[in-house]
Amino acid sequence: MDNQLQTIVQSSGLDKIKADFILQQFQDYFKIAGEWELKAKSIVVTDESQTTDMEMARVGRLFLKEKRVAIEKARKSLKEQALREGKAIDGIANVLKALIVPIEEYLDKQEHFAENKAKEEAERKRIEEEQKAEEERIRQEKIIMLHNERKQIVLPYLSWWDGNLASANLGELSEEDFKNIVSGLKLNKEEYDKKQEEIRFENEKLKIEKEKAELERKKLEEENRKEREKLETEKKVIEDKARKDKEEAERFAREEKEKQEAEKRAIEEKARQEIEKQAAAIEIEKSKARLAIIEADAREQKLREEAEKAKQELANQKEMKCPYCQKTFFA
Asked: Which residues lie in coiled coils (predicted)?
């Protein structure tokens, strides 16, 4: 235990005086803890009747509790002292730094005078450039605003603008130049309006003449229409007469054709009936001839069958001789 405590103190990096003081404060507690570690292991309660052992355990627990509280108090006391020492050290260090830092900063400025001057010059130039850039930005914004204002002025005269308004920067023009441009545009517009008025007058004149010509054209068209209607009427009369004559001729031709076809059909029907009559007579004669042939064949067949039967009967008869008269006969 003592060796363990010494190891902890030595590894903390404290000087020897403080280390010895801390060892002195806690060394006895290590011994007590070691002793009671052995005593505690010897107390083993396994039955309710071991009241003595239980009492010894209680005494030991209270004793160790007392030592633990004492250790905690010692820890707090030592730590409070260390905190007070730390605060005192910080206070002294802050006072010393307050004396040294200004001197150090002054010497640093003296040491880097050239570098600081160059930095200050660079910063001054940077600020000047930024100011110039800002002034240029403001100037450009004013030019754009003036351009937009002037653009609205010249928009009514855009048709008489020679250049490209989109690419022109009206804000950069002087007031006099811009006024001259506007005056020129107005003059161009007035000339244009004058020409447009002349053109309008000519167009009006042409319109009147055109209307007059249109009336003449309509009058002529009306006369032509009436003439066409007259011709159409005459044409229709002629066409109707021709159509009727054609229809009459076609009707007569159709009736003649139908009459001829009827006569032709009557002749053909009579001839057909005569042919059918002759064909029927021929067919009757053919039927009679076929019937006679069939009857003849039947008679011939019957005769053949009778002859065959007689022949068979004759073949079946046996020649016999009468035993009395000795005559031969067939039986």
From this structure: 103-144
Does residue 17 register a pLDDT over 70? no
- pLDDT at position 129 is 92
Whole-Å CA distances, 138 to 7, 17, 238, 243, 252 = 75, 74, 97, 99, 111
Exposure string over 202-233, b if 16+ CB within 10 A, otherwise e: eeeeeeeeeeeeeeeeeeeeeeeeeeeeeeee
Structure confidence by residue, pLDDT tens digits, 216-233 = 888 888 888 888 888 888
DSSP assignment of 5-39 equals HHHHHHHTT--HHHHHHHHHHHHHHHHHHHHHHHH
What whole-number distance in Å separates Cα of residue 254 and Cα of residue 265?
16
Nearest C-alpha neighbor of 154 from the set 184, 117, 111, 196: 184
Residue 161 CB partners (closer than 8 Å, separation 6+): 154, 185
Q: Is 95 within a domain? A: yes
The domain of 64 spans 2-115
27 within some domain: yes
Task: Name, in order, each residue with C-beta under 8 angstroms of 32's C-beta and a sequence gap of 6 or more.
Answer: 64, 67
User: Does residue 82 lie within any of the structural domains?
Assistant: yes
Task: Dig out the tokens for 19 from the structure.
Answer: 């280390």
In angstroms, rounded to a whole number, what is the distance separating the alpha carbons of residues 118 and 162?
54
The band of 324, judged by pLDDT with boundaries at 50, 70 and 90, is low
In a domain, 252, yes or no: no
Q: Name the nearest CA neighbour of 315 among 330, 329, 300, 302.
A: 330
User: pTM above 0.85?
Assistant: no
Q: Are 160 and 192 in contact (CB under 8 A)?
A: yes
Q: What does the block give as tokens for 295?
A: 């009857």
Beta bridge partners of 319: 330
Helix/strand/coil for 320: strand
Question: Number of folded domains in the chain?
Answer: 1
Q: State the chain's mean pLDDT as an integer.
A: 78
At 67, the amino acid letter reads K
> Which residues have a Cβ under 8 Å from the Cβ of 182 and sit 6 or more positions away?
153, 154, 157
